[in-house]
Predict the structure.
Amino acid sequence: MKKYMYIIIILIIFIPLYAMTSLYEKSHVQKTIYVVSMTPDEMTSALSDGKITGFISWEPYPAKAVADGYGRYLVNSKDIWNNHPECVMAVSEYVKDEDTIMALIWVHIKSTRFINDPPNREKVLEYGSEFTGVDKSTASEAINNTVYIEFPDMNEMKTGFEILNKAGGFNKDLSSIGYNNQDNFLSSIIQDKYYNEVRNKLDANPKWTPAAVNGSLKFGLIHNDIHSLGIYVAQKEGYFEKVGLIQDKNIFFLKFRNGMAITNAFTQREVDAAVFGATPVLRYAINDNGKIHIITGVNTGGTSLVVKADSNIRSLDDMSGKTIATPGFGSIQDVIMRKMFEGFEIKTI
């Protein structure tokens, strides 16, 4: 009888322990996400055809996939990473004229405040639709997912730098290019001097306008990127003209497919200023010794992960073993993806 009692006691003790161990082991099974590089147009086609499970792109491509019925939002970047770096306005170090820099910042602040002013909502939706070629409802969804800002959050820029550095995004040590540390580098590349001056003058007098630009400017932006809406708003509201920049006379707007194409254009001196992702700017400055400065923020949020509308995926954990597309390694969407899938093994295919 005692023998059976011992067996029962052992079973009572060890069966729960075994079950708990099994559950612990299952919860720590390595999760994996497979990542392929595509243009946003390629992503939408691949998701529609079921060749990928999801994609991470700038708006309005996610909103359009949802509006067209084959996509469904899973995560928006602003919901998993508050104030994360996204697009910025950068100028070449060859732009020496302070009036030009002040004018660009003034234009940016004016257009950002116009976008964020609730009475302008209908006009902003019209501009968003015209700029991206989607209907107003889709533009509204895309704009709702995007937060338009005047200057980037420095703490979150540091986080973005660290994520990209950990992923092997930089091919040089900061010390080898003359910087003591990360803070020293970021404070050199991200300059707030002119922004603070323009903002303070506008806050004191909303009607203040800087000196007119004397010269010409080539300005780059990414095709169909709702993040750059402020540039279109500035064109439509006449802000560029108020600082002496007349389209196709002394300012020329050039569209590119991604941030890498813009950094190549900076190298060839085909653009003087541009709006594009923060992390391509950082990579360009370090990897290519790019002569460039960030002078304003543009947005946070506005990057989304969409999955097939009829899939059974309801959480990021459900993405394990699946394939998604991003615009490419080192893009801000790639960095957001790495933040989004922390704890996953990320495999590029």
